[in-house]
Specification:
Two copies of one chain form a homodimer. With 236 residues, chain A is mostly helical. Chain A has ten helices and no strands. The interface between A and B is medium-sized, with 27 and 27 residues.
């Protein structure tokens, strides 16, 4: 087994042969897997509020796509010698807290949540993927692929606001609440999971060190969120 | 197009070229499709009550299998020139009424419901499949394939009763309520949908005529239900 290679910036060549890197990847895939599993549940649940059978079927198809992503992550965790259940376990409280505090009151709030919430999660994992070994990065980018939900949500929300412009105020407020809860839970995870947090800032040698970079990343996430809200026809 | 062929018993060779037969098949596939779509939703919903992540993942996989069956039925309905939404529409009230009246109070009631409810539905569609053209019958039997849910439910319910035998009384009562509601909704559908009901009793030429055969079928459904309850370790 090779010794960790340090580059001048202090990061290292990510390799699954390194135990601390492997554990960080297990953490990352565990978080992603539980996120996909709850996304599946949430979309299936939203399907019950769908105003038409066609919408119900469309949401069902997206839920199935999320589940298939979950299954890929579960299989990779097992390949890495990890128990998928144990890998997901540490991320249950943060994800459950997020969903409890942001239970949609209706169909439109559910769509905004799925669009905005998935968008933030996707940005977050894309940031992290820059620091991954190739095979892990490929898997992460594959499971982040849009399942068609974004366009569906944008179309439905824009049409609803066009039909009743008064909705815009309530949904904008809802979007702000969502991003606040998402960032607060993400910070909680980053604070509790050293390995995962260290992946985020460019390598385990930086463990806990580069809070400024984490801050810049949160700024980028917030900026992208603003763009997404505008796409929905809402102010951020 | 050939004229309907009557056999001596008064049924006919089922052919999708016959408009009344095609409409009956659209009815049947519509009922089955909406059943699969709600089974998907229900299993995904049950997944949120799962006591472990492994159980949650297992239920998710079964929900996905139901959705894939739904997608096959949706595609076949479109091939038959029918709108899948319109084909499912007439069966919404009966299925929603069934699910509203039998909302499980906990994880075990959900498992018993899935096992017993799917079992009755499967028996029902198998009875009907005897009267179908080959391509429709193949599709119906394919989507009726057990998605692994039965054994999962049996294992979990038996283990729970073994751990706490007092559960048996409550779950047996629950099973009786389920079969009562299922048969009452099935009778409602049979009464309202002539085409579907006529498929059931062996051909459109019997339309509304053979209530005795329907009665015998209900007796067979009830008998199979008793066997399933015994498999769960419950009295019917």
């Amino acid at each position: 087994m090779d010794a960790p290679e340090q580059d001048p910036a202090g990061s290292f060549a990510a390799s699954l042969d390194q135990e601390d890197y492997r554990l960080a990847v297990v953490d990352l895939l565990g978080a992603l897997a539980y996120g996909e599993l709850t996304a599946f549940e949430r979309l299936a649940d939203d399907a019950s509020f769908a105003p038409t059978i066609a919408d119900k079927a469309a949401l069902g198809a997206m839920a199935v796509a999320e589940y298939n992503h979950f299954a890929l992550l579960q299989a990779r965790l097992a390949e890495l010698g990890a128990s998928p259940e144990e890998a997901m376990e540490p991320f249950i409280p943060a994800l459950e807290a997020f969903h409890e505090r942001t239970a949609p009151g209706d169909w439109l709030e559910g769509l905004v949540k799925a669009y905005v919430g998935d968008g933030i999660a996707e940005d977050f994992y894309r940031e992290v993927s820059a620091y991954l070994d190739e095979s892990t990065r490929d898997l992460v980018l594959l499971v982040l692929e849009d399942t068609g939900h974004s366009q569906f949500a944008v179309d439905r929300v824009r049409a609803a606001i066009e039909a009743d412009p008064r909705l815009a105020g309530r949904l904008a407020l809802w979007g702000r609440r969502l991003v606040g809860e998402a960032l607060s839970q993400a910070q909680r995870v980053a604070a509790e999971r050293d390995a995962l947090a260290s992946l985020l800032v460019g390598g385990l040698s930086h463990r806990g060190a580069d809070l400024a970079e984490v801050g810049r990343m949160f700024a980028r996430l917030t900026e992208n969120h603003t763009t997404r809200m505008a796409t929905l026809g809402l102010s951020a």
